[in-house]
Amino acid sequence: MAAQQANDVIENQVRDLLGQMTLEEKVGQMTQIDFSVVSVENGQDADNPIDRAKLEDALFNHHVGSILNTPTTPNNKAQPIAKWRNMTQVIRETAAKTRLKIPVIYGIDAIHGATYTQGATLFPQAIGMAATFNTELSEKAGAITARAVKASGLDWNFAPVMDIGRQPLWPRLWETYGEDVHLAEAMGSAYIRGHQGEDFSAADKAPTCLKHYVGYSYPLNGKDRTPAWIGERALREYFLPPFQAGVLAGAPTVMINSAEVDGLPGHANYHYLTEILRGEMGFTGFTVSDWEDIIRLHTRDKLAASPREAVKIAVLAGVDMSMVPFDYSFYDLLLDLAKTGEVPQSRIDEAVGRILRVKLQSGLFERREPSIPVAGNFATADGQAVNRQAAEEAIVLAKNANGILPLSKQTRILLTGPTANLLSVMNGGWTITWQGDAEQWYPQDKLTLLKALQQKSAGKVTYVGGQRYSEEINIEQAVAQARQHDVVILALGENTYTETVGNIDSLELPAVQLQLARAIFAAGKPVILVTFGGRPRIITEIAEQAQAVLLGFLPGMEGGAAMADILFGNVNPSGRLPLSYPRAANDVTPYDHKPMEAFEANQYRPLYPFGHGLSYTQFETSGLTLNNNSIALGDSVEVSVKVKNTGKLAGKEAVLVYLHDLVGSVTRPVKQLKAFKKVELQPGEQQTLSFTLTPEDMSFIGVDKRRIVEPGEFDVMVGAETARFNVVAN
């Protein structure tokens, strides 16, 4: 009842404001500008980066509803928290002097912590969080990020990415939760719960934004912002469900796909933006364009004959707010379109009502200063502890031949490779800067892999490598040193990137890394391969010769310490792969493939399968049972299984529950993840875990492109066991 009363109050406020607003004020609310529009020159280095005259022009004359980004594009970099608080306070105070005192909503890409605030706790990127298979960690990361965003004086976070990562070439793969639908739903929903809580107007909570609706992550050629070809059945089976989960979790904003699906750009797709997102999924918040994407309907896509037509197409398709971002062109064009009636007043009111509603729900109208203090809310000890745990659980032990790991702390170690002594390679893009490659601005108190090994080792640690990723490594020196050490840790992988800058032509590792690896193997010493990077680069030749393989992906600021702790056995690894790690560049098959993909000459033969991950102890699942072997359509099945630590060390185990529909009117995957739970067990300890498989879990998109459950047999698979149940027609 209280919630309904609060909603009624907000709806009355929205109607009241709409009734008072001029057309100019309404169109301004739909306009989002980059900070550079109101900035002094080189604002990233100025103590007071706001040009007051420009800000007043934006808010008094153009009635701008939203500002995004850091000072000052294209030289974005993280700012001190005091500067952020001062900047956002000036914007709040200026907005409070406008006629209707409508606040600005300030958006930022805080995708793995408050990425653009100096000293923030920066977590593993989403692909690493997915590897933890720990929704509790995802929820805590969301809560800690929201606190840091709000302590910075900011309002709105452009996260999480709910695109599915099924195209490993795509340079934003690491921003996703991997290739599986259920994993993305679970991890993304948990993040939203933590970030927003029960009420995202709370002082330490903030609204989230689902990205990038929809199909952006599956470009046919793997390049960023290029076409995807996705039939509607596949769209509904794989790509829409994570967004639906995000809507159900309460995310009030959605950012739109920068590219196109089936020939129609995301910003022009009325079917996706209005009929599906709102009509079917029940989304009631507002949509925001991605960077400059409305004007690109004309300049790039040639869908619109003019910038004016581009604005008309996008707004009528369902775009509520335009990330313009560098001028007032959207404002001027939409104002003219509204005055001529080409965009109806009702559509303007609809969009503005949605924006005002989210601002009211966020508590922005009551906020006259940063809502929480820095002390106790930013870079806290408890946040750092959660981050360390997340980094530890994000790292996947993929191979450990003859139990070479963990290493004795007396081991004489040679460390070499381009990712051995950099923080940037463990964090990736959207870290301090857009591309994340400004190593000189990373915090000096955080440990690279080299520094962590030196700190934690009691033996000799020698490093052969450069100060930059691209610096040539003296291979002869590395080989000579290898002969004088017990083991070589070979740190390979990628430099940092995001978006189109990260496009590559092949998943193969750079030739210089293969050259280094081959020379090191020839030295005859045991080799431990460690990788960092956002994509599964092809490591097959190296991994097959290495005694151990640790896959780091992007474990964040605590990644070096976490990796060293795993190498020395201070931490028992528990990460699992959130994707199928390909064996070859052109052999990309997801785990939930169709039967024909593993039939006759075809095989599912990744280097490491989805869900793979080793431990320094052993776990055994047993006693898989169902509460009923025959159920009626519409009923659920209760699943029970025991998990036991049969080894000699305490450890964490993610228990994964798969389901297979044996026969369907549309071909069904060989298995699909439907539930998981992570537990920590002492040696000899056993737990019984329970799961519920619902009709939704048994459903699929049928011939008529509607979600159905068909009668028939289903297999439940956990570990090495399978149990079968039958769904009977009523």
Automatic annotation (TrEMBL):
Keyword Protease: no
Gene3D superfamilies assigned: Glycoside hydrolase family 3 C-terminal domain, Glycoside hydrolase, family 3, N-terminal domain, Immunoglobulins
Pfam families the record matches: Fn3-like (PF14310), Glyco_hydro_3 (PF00933), Glyco_hydro_3_C (PF01915)
Residues of the Fibronectin type III-like domain: 653-722
SUPFAM superfamilies: (Trans)glycosidases (SSF51445), Beta-D-glucan exohydrolase, C-terminal domain (SSF52279)
Annotated coiled-coil segments of the chain: none
A Gene Ontology molecular function term of the record: hydrolase activity
Keywords, comma-separated and alphabetical: Glycosidase, Hydrolase, Signal
Catalysis: reaction(s): Hydrolysis of terminal, non-reducing beta-D-glucosyl residues with release of beta-D-glucose
EC number: 3.2.1.21
Source organism, top-level taxon: Bacteria
Family named by the database record: Belongs to the glycosyl hydrolase 3 family.
Protein name: beta-glucosidase
Organism for this UniProt entry: Methylomonas subterranea
